[in-house]
């Protein structure tokens, strides 16, 4: 995912009103940010340099310190041992959730090159929206010159409502740029017509 950088993004975001904050807080339950470490955990200087840098980057974009995700069982095929750190996770609720959500929708998503909307298939049956970023540099808080390690991010937005159709309407009302219809769904409709 290629990111278009701009210094004007921070000043372009208008301040949030209390009504908007309440609207987002009433609709969303939580936002979970997962960072996959993957092969970086196999390097020699992982505990000394890599893990603290990734934790600092994730704390900077989330606003709170991440929790380490460790393996429960050893997996020989991946050369992974029980207790080894394989990822980091942050769960945001309340004010931090609202602030992160607004930055995600207003700043991060528009910075992605060739962005044409979030596919509806990114919403599961429970209504959770799952977004993936190949690198952390999509977020303007992370400086590529200071961060020497690249890691992927998964953002899961969990709503309070669990009915998929109502959730899709709610996401659109909050300003999430969802595509009108997926290609697979539209091609299935075309096949039925023929």
Total helical elements: 6
Element string (H = helix, E = strand): HHEHEEHEEHH
Domain module count: 1
Q: Provide the residue-averaged pLDDT.
A: 79
Percent range for β-strand residues:
15-25%
Q: According to CATH, what is the topology? A: 50s Ribosomal Protein L5, Chain: A
**Straight-line N-to-C gap:** 36 Å
**Oligomerization status of the protein chains:** single chain
| Spatial extent as radius of gyration | 18 Å
Overall 3D form: globular
Structural category is alpha+beta
CATH class (first level) name? Alpha Beta
Give start-end ranges of low-pLDDT stretches. 1-12
- Roughly how much helix do the residues carry, as a percent range? 25-40%
In the CATH hierarchy, the architecture is 2-Layer Sandwich
The CATH homologous superfamily name equals Ribosomal protein L5
Question: What is the gist of this entry?
Answer:
The chain has one domain: Ribosomal protein L5 (50s Ribosomal Protein L5, Chain: A, 2-Layer Sandwich), CATH 3.30.1440.10. It is built from 6 helices and 5 strands, in the order H-H-E-H-E-E-H-E-E-H-H.
Outline the secondary-structure elements.
Blueprint: H1 9-12, H2 18-27, E1 28-36, H3 46-62, E2 67-70, E3 85-92, H4 94-111, E4 129-133, E5 152-159, H5 164-174, H6 183-193
Antiparallel strand pairs: 1-3, 1-5, 2-3, 4-5
């Amino acid at each position: 995912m290629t990111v278009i950088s701009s210094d004007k993004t921070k000043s372009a975001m208008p301040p949030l009103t209390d009504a908007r904050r309440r609207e987002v807080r009433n609709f969303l339950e939580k936002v979970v940010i997962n960072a996959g470490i993957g092969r970086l955990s196999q390097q020699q200087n992982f505990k000394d340099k890599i893990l603290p840098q990734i934790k600092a980057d994730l704390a900077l974009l989330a606003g709170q310190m991440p929790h380490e995700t460790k393996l429960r069982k050893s997996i020989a095929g991946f050369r992974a041992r029980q207790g080894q750190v394989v990822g980091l996770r942050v769960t945001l609720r309340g004010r931090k959730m609202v602030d992160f959500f607004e930055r995600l929708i207003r700043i991060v998503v528009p910075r992605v090159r060739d962005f044409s909307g979030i596919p509806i298939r990114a919403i599961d049956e429970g209504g959770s929206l799952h977004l993936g970023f190949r690198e952390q540099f999509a977020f303007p808080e992370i400086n590529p010159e200071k961060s020497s390690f690249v890691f992927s991010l998964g953002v899961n937005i969990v709503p309070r409502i669990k009915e998929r159709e109502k959730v899709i309407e709610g996401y659109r009302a909050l300003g999430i740029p969802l595509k009108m219809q997926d290609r697979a769904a539209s091609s299935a409709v075309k096949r039925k017509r023929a």
